[in-house]
């Protein structure tokens, strides 16, 4: 099996060492959704015939859960990620307004968005960019505004590691205008939309009803070496073996070109 890249990621999972062919400059578009990648059906200017055909990009294979490092000990003790309806984290990002919206937004007949563990399809999600930019506005807590982004960790989970209950949205899952993909066909269609459109990729959510076992976590990404050493020590004390990688681009604001 090929060696991991210099950033500590498995082959194909590092956006720097293995840049995806579509869409171009994906990370740089997070601040400007209007400049998202060209539709798959739109040929390059001046292109005609077979040369104008664009192959569909690969569907997202991994989803990302961001949490403050102070929340990690409780996660390790529980042995799983739990939805906000079941746990009170040491550092809470969402404001009471956001909590109310997510607890009343239905995912199905018996569960709300708050009953699901939330993930993003991109480690440079729109909401995470808002936190990096200072967490302004009523959707964020005072703790979120005071937190340093280098004190967060990003947990990567392969989509294949979760069950068929996975729900994929094309935006904020609690928003009225957001579409939810629940069935296998709808999920695949939503993932294809995200793969084709950078704005959708960075706004979409992947929701796992119930809990997500730590055994599903393939990677923990951190901002710097001291944080990596701290997280490794926490994992070791809990008897958990998960790859920890240093990848600063996921923790600093990205300005669109």
TrEMBL record:
Catalytic activity: a thymidine in DNA + NAD(+) = an N-(ADP-alpha-D-ribosyl)-thymidine in DNA + nicotinamide + H(+)
Residues reported in the UniProt entry to bind NAD(+): 65-67, 102
Ranges for domain DarT: 61-252
Region (Disordered): 25-55
MF terms in GO: DNA binding; glycosyltransferase activity; nucleotidyltransferase activity
Entry annotation: catalytic residues: 102 (proton acceptor), 205
InterPro entries (alphabetical): DarT (IPR029494)
Compositional bias of kind Low complexity: 26-45
Keywords from the UniProt entry: DNA-binding, Glycosyltransferase, Nucleotidyltransferase, Toxin-antitoxin system, Transferase
PROSITE patterns according to UniProt: DART
Domain of life, source organism: Bacteria
Pfam families: DarT
Protein family membership: Belongs to the DarT ADP-ribosyltransferase family.
This protein's name: DUF4433 domain-containing protein
